[in-house]
């Protein structure tokens, strides 16, 4: 195999380990997916990776159920820097006005990744939220959503934001979606990252 293929496989391995170790609560190995200055941007949390892991562990201990499923990955790589985009779904279960519900959000992980001292690690993970839906776990359950609250959130993750708000999280309301200025700005940042610029 060529060096480029080997590096791309290592990046793909990193992306897959992130989802498997995080969802399994394997926190020590999950930490190895990040560089020390790594940051996570999610609907319910934005900040340093170390604090994201702490918050995830606390949620895990309280029974918060957030799982990830991965699809295909594409990698743009320049030397020791890369942008990896991976199709994914986020699945969360929780109560909405007393009705147990599942929400599934489809999108992409958009990862700023760098190789330092021989190890690839995530510097910034910014999900792109493309579309979602919410369903009662019991199909005969009666559920009525607050249309005014639902309308406050972007189309790509409005049901995910709704359930997260209902269980007490403060949700960021300007995350990138399939189209629009937020995702276009993210693509520009990714291009600049590959050219040696900051991840911010």
Structure summary:
The chain has helices at residues 3-23, 27-31, 49-61, 147-150, 158-166, 181-194; strands at 34-41, 46-48, 65-78, 81-96, 99-116, 119-136. With 200 residues, the chain is of the alpha+beta class. It is globular and about 55 Å long.
Structural summary, described in words:
By secondary structure, the protein is an alpha+beta fold. Helices cover 33% and strands 38% of the residues. The chain has helices at 3-23, 27-31, 49-61, 147-150, 158-166, 181-194; strands spanning 34-41, 46-48, 65-78, 81-96, 99-116, 119-136.
Which tags fit this structure?
200 residues; alpha+beta; 6-stranded mixed sheet; 6 helices
Helices and strands in order:
Layout (H helix, E strand, L loop, with lengths): L2 H21 L3 H5 L2 E8 L4 E3 H13 L3 E14 L2 E16 L2 E18 L2 E18 L10 H4 L7 H9 L14 H14 L6
Parallel strand pairs: 1-6
Antiparallel strand pairs: 1-2, 3-4, 4-5, 5-6
Radius of gyration: 17 Å
Q: Describe the global form.
A: globular
- Count all strands and give the number: 6
Helix and strand composition category: alpha+beta
Instruction: Indicate the proportion of strand residues.
Output: 35-45%
* Helix percent band: 25-40%
- Cross-sheet strand order for the largest sheet: 2-1-6-5-4-3
Distance between the termini: 34 Å
Number of alpha- plus pi-helical segments? 6
Q: What would the average pLDDT be, to the nearest integer? A: 95
Provide the succession of SSEs. HHEEHEEEEHHH
Report the sheet with the most strands, covering strand number, pairing sense and barrel closure.
Answer: 6 strands, mixed
Low-confidence stretches: none
